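Question: I have long wanted to understand how a fold can be written as tokens. Here is the record:
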Amino acid sequence: MVYSDLGRYDEALTDFTRAIELEADDSAWEHTLRGRVFQDMSRYDEALADFTRAIELDSAEPWAVTSRGHAYRELERYEDAIADFTRAIELDGEYTWAISDRGETYRELERYDEAVADFTRAIETWPESEWLFGTRGDTYREMERFDDAVADLTHAIELNPGYSWAIAARGGVYEDQERYDEALADLSRAIELRPDYVWALRRRGGVHQAMKRYDDALADFTRAIELDPECDLCFAGRGDVHRELARDDDALADFTRAIELDPDYSWALGNRGQLYLDLGLLAEAEADLDRVIELVPADGWAYYLSAMLLRQRGDHEEAGKRLTHALQLDQANLAGAGEPDRIAFNVMVYFVALGDDEAAKAQLRAALTNRPAVTAVDDVLADLRDLTAYANPSPVIVDLVSALEEYRALRTASR
């Protein structure tokens, strides 16, 4: 085991293989240990074979079953993983590793209620675990149960005041709640603890951007890129700051680099496509927007931008069809929206583009009753300005902008 702990995997394999040869019929433990080495080496077929052999030799031992489940989870064979974790829990109802790993698997499947139930059960058996509280808190964040998320992450930090991940994660929740000063404090503390913490730098850059502190945002994104030159999210984030500052060439360069790093990065493709559209580069915009639609067929905004492109080309009939399709998509998306504010405002913009002023006003009223985030309001104000450039401006835009700006002022004053 010493060789394995030191990362000297070939020597560890030699020792475990020799031990198995010496006690072939009583080697469940050694098969499991060797399987874990294979797993650490990403040699999953051999790892699974060893774990399975260990289970055959001792079917009552939960460690081997859980180890195989963990390998299945890494391979994204989630149902197989859940089956093994469940079997291990049946063997030992207080086996924290199996319970928490099953929770992690449920979380990856977005089965959040089941994930929370498992993390809660694991906490009952291991209440000193900052990781369990932090992970349950981060699951609550995914469920938009922000107060519960903050409570769990705060408890994780109380258990371990130097737990940089939990501190940064709580900062991310504060950002989601528009509690920007608290978000900055947590993210900055996490970066103090881990100066190379790319995720925290990127998130802090996003907070600075939301606060219109663009120089600080650019500095954070740039530092994150220096630390991780292959961070596509960092390039895309910096590109978005450049876009807000109307530094079009810099924005295009960063979006392009993000797409080079991940050719299927639909958010970067959509933003670059919209910027191309704003610049009148219609062929380039069309290529990006078509690719977004191919990757995310339910992306109503991509259809809307495509419709605006067609209007600029004079193809009003096809533009109308795409606008109607965008509206249908996002009206359906609203029911299970991960970003309901954004999609509700998108629907309002579609109504304006279709010339249905009364429906646009009604949609705005409905959107504002849900107290949308100021960042979402800023985005839709920009979208309405863009719409006046894409098509003949509608008089209703003045009324919509006035109502949005009034809401924004009140929401900002109440922070």
User: Anything to note?
Assistant: Residues 337-415 form one domain.
